[in-house]
Amino acid sequence: MSKPRIIVTGGAGYIGSHIVKALVEKEYCVIVYDRKPIPGGLRALQAGGLLHGIQADLADRAALDAALRKFEPNAAINLAGYIAVGESVRDPGKYYDNNIANGLNLLDALLAGGVKCFVFSSSAAVYGMPREVPIAEDHPTAPINPYGRTKWFFEHILRDYDAAYGLRSISLRYFNAAGADHSGEIGEAHDPETHLVPLVLQVPMGLRDSVAIFGSDYPTRDGTCVRDYIHVTDLADAHVRAVEALLDGSPTDVFNLGNGEGCTVREVIAAAEEVVGGNIKTLDAPRRPGDPAALVASSEKAMQKLGWRPKHNTLKIIIQTAWQWHKRQMGKDA
Ligand code: UFG
């Protein structure tokens, strides 16, 4: 019997492209539905006939219906969301429109197409300012910005859709996704860039003079914020496991995804200096509004129920793989 078909909305993005690669390597048939074309780094996989691309918007119900009719997927993974916290504060309408309204468009199209397994890209942002770390899934949720609220609302929508329509879902609450595929073919780039690891690496690439450290007076071991950096390949593996669990009949659930270990901003910069073999100039800057002092996951539940174990779980591997990809991009631009 042939393997199930999975539609990955937002599959051309940073995390999405790593998930797509992991699924195709396990011989699933994957349909990437995205506004952007399939990234160049995945094109080699298309030769095997398991990877298909539809370039269209989630708001376009006719395009969604046509894709679902053509490929008849068995499950969906949705990563097609906006991700910039600061922008969500300045322009919440953009976030509610894409992350919620377009997400509903997708859910309704899936139900009409008979798809009842759904993996959702959620975020540690649902916890807001945590009361304690490590954070388990039953920690109170209290998002503090529109981005986090879109993820929180959508998790609730998914529970309601299960109760009413039988759509089973797994929401995966990522902590800080970072790193790149070991091949160096796919990696992280946002425009504009706001994430720490790529910003730090832009200094040795000569794209910026220094990296700002947002706050040095937090109650942490060196005064800078603590985050739980999780390798994107480990995140991708969790998505494969989540979709397989749903296809096997697992109920609706939510899981944290992190390494369970926090690193400070200064530790990230020190690890990057070691990887690139040189100093990275920093600039002490004020705190960024809305940044919790520490966000560290307990991923015990994902380990127990999905059998997931992060394998690329050191800052060094995360930064080495990110650096390998960034250097390759630099070569392409030269
Ligand atoms: N930071 C700096 N300088 C920079 C950029 C970031 O010091 O130039 C710091 C931030 O203050 C933070 C850490 O580096 O302490 C990581 O910042 P990122 O912007 O890379 O990531 P966040 O922790 O803000 O965001 C992540 C996800 C979001 C999610 C959020 C949940 O990327 O999608 O966690 O709080 F919403």
Describe the structure.
The chain has 334 residues and is of the alpha/beta class. The protein has eleven helices and 14 strands. Strands 3-2-1-4-5-6-11 form a seven-stranded parallel β-sheet, sandwiched between helices. A three-stranded mixed β-sheet has the order 12-9-14. The longest helix is centred in the N-terminal third of the chain and has 21 residues, at 92-112. The protein binds uridine-5'-diphosphate-4-deoxy-4-fluoro-alpha-D-galactose (UFG). Uridine-5'-diphosphate-4-deoxy-4-fluoro-alpha-D-galactose is lined by residues 83, 85, 123-125, 147, 176, 194-196, 199, 211-214, 225, 227, 265, 288, 291, 295.
Task: Briefly summarize what is shown.
By secondary structure, this protein is α/β, with parallel strands linked by helices. The protein contains eleven helices and 14 strands.
What structural class do you assign from the helix and strand content? alpha/beta
How many H/I helical runs?
11
Low-confidence spans: none
Shape label: globular
**Could you give the order of the helices and strands?**
EHEHEHEHHEHEEHEEEHEEHEEHH
Strand content: 15-25%
Strand order within the widest beta sheet: 3-2-1-4-5-6-11
Bound molecules: uridine-5'-diphosphate-4-deoxy-4-fluoro-alpha-D-galactose
Helix content: 40-55%
Average pLDDT: 96
Radius of gyration: 19 Å
Largest sheet: 7 strands, parallel
Distance between the termini: 47 Å
Beta strands, count: 14
Write the layout of secondary structure elements.
Layout: E1 5-9, H1 14-25, E2 29-34, H2 43-46, E3 51-55, H3 61-71, E4 75-78, H4 85-90, H5 92-112, E5 117-123, H6 146-165, E6 168-174, E7 176-178, H7 196-202, E8 211-214, E9 226-227, E10 229-231, H8 232-247, E11 253-257, E12 263-264, H9 265-276, E13 282-285, E14 294-295, H10 300-306, H11 315-333
